[in-house]
């Protein structure tokens, strides 16, 4: 049996630039083919163990951080987080999606679409804020779900986070090239290399790779310097947005707002499902909690403050567009540029392109920070090799994790046009937000060893009613958009499920700040995210299902055994400490207990 001294020797700081089998596969299950075959033979037992196991706040904030060998540097304030919020959310989406949805689905009522999607985003922001204050670690939603829903649910989330990070970065970098060429007044594909490869993979994009590499290099060098650069770029983007608002309303014609609902209420909600993704990226702030000087104060100010301001900005921008130009005349591919041209400001299209370019630059910059921190904590839990959890002793940044995301994203960005993967990206985001709302309800109403079993059964039952009724509402909307009778069943069921949870006693009170109106707001978040998921095409769910199958294969052959070994190794260490503290003889212990 290993002693505490021997275990501590294993985590002594070594050279950061190392690469051995032990750095990637230190777990007992992967020491040789014999131990691996034995681990596979125990798959069913281990899966049950991981399915039912839960982490806790202390393990996420203290024990797992030791896997990085060096701490991330606490250097951020609420001011940094607020600007990170602007940098991560305000990209090209507002410039692109507004024109498309105003022309195709909503007309002048596009402003209401942004109100609806903004409210939905704020519901998720509330959940993230409470968790980030209570569990201030780099893992964000992955860490929160490990605590409340267990390893398996956290793994599914982790896989979607990594998928979202890689595909999202690749998509933004490809868009960066397109906007850069438009700024030069050239064709969007003029700077890409044309090849004879399969359609969709035949336009190679070295500029996208270069932009990703530069953003990642800055993020790896220093979190503080990245924050400074984000301030500058976000401030420039804010100037462009202010110009759009002032010039837009100065040339507004209220007669363009009639009819206000050309496509009816259906069009408002269809557009809301699409423009919702212009709000994406705010979860990046939660991953900065470990580097925040005062998380309990700075995170609510940074996260809630930035998203509240962004929602107002988006609604004003959405209102200014159809006031400048009739919705039916809007160019869906270059909405603001054509709108300014229609009022005699043709030169403004270059400023709009510059604003979109600045926005995408900050999205890539903040994304490089946040995605690496997600990856770092996922590696700390050994869901992926722990080599990616290491934090550099000088820069105090996770260089290995940053390289992983950057290299993968660069490979996709170089070859793929990403037309197929964008819907997959959307469904992954909504799935994670829905899971976060479920986790918050579990956190408030269930405490291990305290909550009676009858209350646990009731909680699970009510959650299933909420989820099922929300899925029913979404399905009915998709199948019968002009009918209403089905909502008389699904909506009351959702209400009764939420009411049932509200009658249960809460087991936990937030220490500093908590989501108001629990369980109503988290339950509404579940409903809205599932509703928006239902608005996506069937092909998105097919791809999501295929990716999930691939993720499960990886989990059963690697992730399951790595996390099992880590968890039981930690249990063994805790047992040794208890024994030595109480002076109990080691011969009284079963050395094989809990270890495969």
Explain this structure.
With 596 residues, this protein is mostly helical. Helices cover 68% and strands 1% of the residues. The protein has 23 helices and two strands. The chain has helices spanning 4-10, 21-24, 33-41, 43-52, 57-63, 78-89, 93-106, 110-134, 141-148, 151-183, 206-221, 223-250, 264-275, 283-286, 295-324, 335-342, 348-380, 399-415, 422-445, 453-479, 487-502, 520-534, 538-582, and strands at 193-194, 203-204. The protein has a two-stranded antiparallel sheet. A hairpin with an 8-residue loop joins strand 1 (193-194) and strand 2. Helix 8 (110-134) packs across helix 19 (422-445), helix 9 packs across helix 19 and helix 12 packs antiparallel against helix 17. The longest helix has 45 residues, at 538-582. The chain is globular and about 80 Å long. It starts with a helix and ends in a 14-residue tail after the last helix.
Question: How is the secondary structure organized here?
Answer:
Blueprint: H1 4-10, H2 21-24, H3 33-41, H4 43-52, H5 57-63, H6 78-89, H7 93-106, H8 110-134, H9 141-148, H10 151-183, E1 193-194, E2 203-204, H11 206-221, H12 223-250, H13 264-275, H14 283-286, H15 295-324, H16 335-342, H17 348-380, H18 399-415, H19 422-445, H20 453-479, H21 487-502, H22 520-534, H23 538-582
Protein name: Cationic amino acid transporter 5
Transmembrane segments: 75-98, 110-131, 152-172, 228-249, 269-289, 301-321, 350-370, 399-418, 424-443, 455-478, 484-505, 512-534, 540-562
GO molecular function: L-glutamate transmembrane transporter activity; L-lysine transmembrane transporter activity
